[in-house]
From TrEMBL:
Name of the molecule in the record: YkvA family protein
Lineage: Bacteria, Bacillati, Actinomycetota, Actinomycetes, Kitasatosporales
Residues annotated as transmembrane: 6-28
Domain of life: Bacteria
Entry-linked InterPro entries: DUF1232
């Protein structure tokens, strides 16, 4: 292969690796937020956002093909925001 083709492959691989790492980090944050809210009297809709994001992440049906995790990252961000809003309204302190 030519050098230009290897560069394109390297850039694509780096982008895929970056999105996979970002999705993993967000998944860990969502799970930690869920642990914080486990029995704090949080409304069911916020808990459903958590489970919906996990199901979408594991689902073979995606808006974008699987090597591109941008849609999965978006769902994880929405679930994390929903859980953080629920924690703030319940008066739970964030751990830093």
């Amino acid at each position: 292969m030519r050098t230009e083709m290897w560069m394109v492959v390297a850039v694509a691989a780096a982008l895929i690796a970056t999105t996979v790492v970002l999705a993993g980090v967000l998944l860990v944050k969502v799970v930690r937020a869920r642990r914080l809210l486990r029995d704090a009297g949080i409304p069911m809709e916020n808990k459903m956002a958590f489970w919906g994001a996990l199901i979408y992440l594991a689902s073979p049906v995606d808006l974008l093909p699987d090597p591109v995790f941008l849609d999965d990252i978006g769902f994880l961000l929405l679930a994390l925001r929903s859980l953080q809003t629920a924690a703030d309204s319940a008066g739970l302190a964030r751990r830093r």
